Request: fold
Amino acid sequence: MDLRVHIPSTSQLSDYVTSIWEVFGDSKINETILPQGIVEMIFNLGDPMNGNLPDEQCFSAPLCFIQGVNTERVSVNYQGRQHLFGIRLQPSMVKGLLGILPSELKNTLIDLTLIKPGFNIFWHQLKEAPSFSARVKLVEEQFPVLSAAVCLRTQKLCNLFAAEGISDFSSLDKLTQQVYYSSRHLNRKAQSIFGISAEELITYKKFLHAVKLLHTNKEPLTAIAYESGFYDQAHFCRIFKSYAGITARQYRQHKSELPFHLFTKEQ
Reply:
């Protein structure tokens, strides 16, 4: 697998594009993608791919689509050449960019050309571009500059969710103090941005942290559980399986070089 990543830290798009990536992979690969807590546009520049969404709904992926925060795993099958180009977005800016709430994207994917037909032309431009750097340049030249008019508290909530560590997600009270929302307002905001309640957002963040820990150290699962904010290993294992569909131990045994992604080669 060949992965390339660009972080637009100095770009005019850095307020809402968190990263741009590209991956090339082998054919006849089955991929399982665990919930990652991200919103991203994906442009399939390779052969067609099929799979199953969290509700077991089968899909044949459009040439370009956007997917939101998933709370269950997604499976994808690549029979031919794998070549994907992705743009990860700040959730609070999705409405300003596309005119839809990011919560509408939860556990699903939407054809980008149904939102804005111009994405069909953009897909062809990406397809014809000779390199990853040329495709990044297309994004930086053609994506709009958005006003940072989003509520600062909303932006802070998204930044805290995307940041490393879980100290701000130790409890609902701690999170409300950090973003200066009442618990009721925080719940409404979490529902509109992520499509889940504030309480589930806290649990979800702990799950994401646990997956990353499983990639960076070899500590026992009990230690992973406590470092991720769970009160015991049984609670951790139950929550992990509810999101991943497999146990933490199974994930550790079969993990790939990419966190949240599992691959199996067809015989």
